[in-house]
Design goal:
By secondary structure, the chain is an all-alpha fold. The protein contains five helices and no strands.
Length: 170
Amino acid sequence: MLTGLFLLAGHGMVQRAARKQAKAQAGRDLSKWHRELRRQSYVDCIVTYEKVRDMIVPLSRAIPWPVSRALSDTEAQELDALLATLGERYDEAFQKCQIVRLEGPEAVADAAQRLIFAAADFRQAADERALAARNGERPVQSPAWTSSAEKMNDQLEEFIEIARAVISVD
């Protein structure tokens, strides 16, 4: 009888240890899955944001500055196509950055928000520069083209550093 009690107690200890080990493994698996999810959302954000940034060169070629004359109809059509592409890429980057904002943590969410603001500033500068070029007018103030393009680059580098730090800790 005493042997039976020892066997039952031993069996119970083995079961508790197995449950504890399974719970610990499930926690590690969940952490790994969450890290991979974050990493993928960060990568998606970076890749789509770089597509927005890739529009700087073609747009700068299509929108001469300083303005010396109004754009021809063909030049205006090409510019419209580039601006439409910029809009599509901005919308996609906006969506991917919003996913990062949801995934967090706070430092990465804030950096993703700054990415969105920087891209919106560039988009606005491109629209202003395009309007001036279409009309052959040089505005009193030059558009914030250069500063917004630089800000996009700076914000992307900052985002990458913050995201890298978060992933290495997870």
